[in-house]
Design a protein that fits this description.
single chain, 48 residues, mainly alpha
Length: 48
């Protein structure tokens, strides 16, 4: 959550100055979420 909040606030400022960075910022926002999903999958595999 901390990483995503830092990326989100920095990304909002970057997109305000350069709108062409929108796609890159969306990818950077998705990376922490992907790590959370991967953690849940690994936990499920370990516990089952």
């Amino acid at each position: 959550a901390w990483a995503q909040s830092k990326i989100g606030s920095a990304g909002a400022g970057a997109v305000a100055e350069k709108p062409e960075l929108t796609g890159t910022i969306i990818i950077f926002m998705a990376i922490p979420e992907t790590m959370v999903i991967l953690g849940f999958v690994i936990a499920y595999l370990i516990l089952s």
